[in-house]
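Action item from last week, closing it out:
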Amino acid sequence: MKRQRRDFLRKLGATGAIAALSPIALSQEAQAKNLIEIKNQFNSENDTTIKLGLIGAGIMGIEDTNSALRHANVELVAVCDLYKGRLDSAKQRWGDHLFVTQDHKELLKRSDVDAVIIATSDHWHKQISIDALNAGKHVYCEKPMVHSVKEGMDVINAWKKSGKVMIVGSQGVSSLGNEKAKELLAEGAIGDIVYAEGFWARMSPEGAWQYAIPKDGNEQTVDWKKYVSNTKSRDWDPLRFFRWRNYLDYGTGMSGDLFVHLFSSLHFITDSYGPNKISSMGGLRYWKDGREVPDVLLGTFDYPETEKHAGFNLSLRCNFVDGTSGTTYLRIVGTKGSMDVKWEEVVVKMNQTMTSDDPFLQEQARLRGDSDTRAAILPPKELVYTAQRNWKGAHYDHFGNWFQAIRTGGTVAEDPVFGFRAAAPALLCNDSYFQNKFIQWDPVNMKLI
């Protein structure tokens, strides 16, 4: 395996080097703090106005559109949603000039729409993405890119054929924290990766997807027949429309909605294609409201050795019954140390000594012939990298990456191939849970084994 390792301390740069040499930093308890610099990556001589259409004006659709409109020379011209109440709200929020419709194909016919944001329920991601690409529109599709692994290659093939720019909305891959972690891992900061773990914790009705049901949410204001037209036909059910994440016909549960963020970040940092063995277990422990998905889920994943990284294992957890509330992290553990990665911060923890206070291990070391050596000046136990305060956030940068690629014909951080490789193990985690078995996956060729 080709893995070039450099001297980590030599690569810290001026700020890190000064911190490491300062008297305070010589203490084992000290932290060396460094700012993660913002790269001026969205400057372009081409400032052509990009006109957007939004398809799916719910929680994420609103958040995505507001982030997009923070960029210069970006306009929203059309909105589509199956619920009329959201169309009315869209005009109140963004202006009466908007063209609004309940039919996404009507929006895609418009010549004044250059690109679309797709923020519908998961079971419509594939078809609307393909329809948009075939209509000559650039696409921003919320994660997960598809509702099942059998849909992935259809989207990839449509994208390649279209010549348009498509990005998948796991915004963490555009974060300063992820970028810094990728750089540090490549420089050998923590040695070779051997293990990683991630965790999502929530403890609120909204966090557990018990969203409010609008008083006017009914068959007269919602195009229910269209909503279920690509899945099992059912009578009108407001819970299945407004709380769709809880139902398998429309959503992808904890793994598709949240694990996919952790997969995206991990794959970006490690240059991994994904795991080849997937397993999961969990259960419905608290939110027994008729949902079809667990509220506690554990997943374990086996990543094979590749040219890019050593073989390692991944453990992911998600808990909607957690009193700590709001906790999330990704930790990467290597042969020399570990990294705790957030979107705005990276904490590197380094192993400085192999000694132990365990009497048994101390005796074994003595029998092995280990001898006391002269004390040494040690580097900091922790190096903390924090985003500059004027950073506008991963959401802003993810859209900036997309707009830049549209204007210049460039590439994006999370194209459909990357997006599918992040979505697949998350979706297969569900399959493992419901089928009670290990799932074998070929991450290179992106197919089941």
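Closing note: The chain has two domains: 9-35+180-392+416-448, 50-172.
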